[in-house]
Dynein heavy chain AAA module D4 domain-containing protein (Polarella glacialis), 241 residues
Amino acid sequence: LHCVLVMNPNSQDFRKRLRELPAITSRCTIDWFQEWPEEALQAVAERLIPEALAEAEAGDNPGASALGEQPTAEKEENKEQDVEPEGEGFPHMDFATRRTIMKALPAVHMAAGSVIKAAGRNGSCLPHRLRLQAAPPSSFLNLVRLFCGIFKRGTQEATAKRLVLEIGVRRLQEAKGHIESMQLTQKNKWPMMETMKAEVKVATAKLEAEKARADSTQRHVQKEEDAARKKEADCMEKEQE
């Protein structure tokens, strides 16, 4: 029976296990894993990042995750030629940008490891705990997860802002349609309004003429009433005499 235990030598738990279980060093064969080569880091990035992008953008493109898988040989050919495979397009990030990111993350991890090694050789990377620092593969996985999380949050924020803008544009288009409809209605009713305006003008002139005649008649009647009252008053004076 062979048991294989995989541990991270850069963690505090590993040191604790060595102190509590000395058989790990005295009864076990230790096989130190070499650092991941750049090709392995690249393969991990090419596997995890597209999945994270597809998950982050599934809300905008629900059918993206259900698209058919492309044959492996064709994928390798497209990867060598930097050609975007069919069925793997993401609306928020073009293929060249994704390829650049998948190449940049391994380069950043390896550069960090080189800096840590160089600092360790000259003693500047020994903190208060007096132990060397390292950039194990798990830190690369954390880097990929960090990028995927940031991208997912950014995609969600961009999607929310885009929805707000789309609603605003839709409202503006609706308002524009209403304004155009009102302008068309006003244009169609304008001749009728001009006709009604002319009719109102004629009717107003006629009413003013009739009012003038009525005022003249009223003044004539008023004069006759005044004359009649005067005659009546004269007659009453004569009767009293």
About this structure: Confidence is low (pLDDT under 50) at residues 61-76, 78-91. The chain has six helices and no strands.
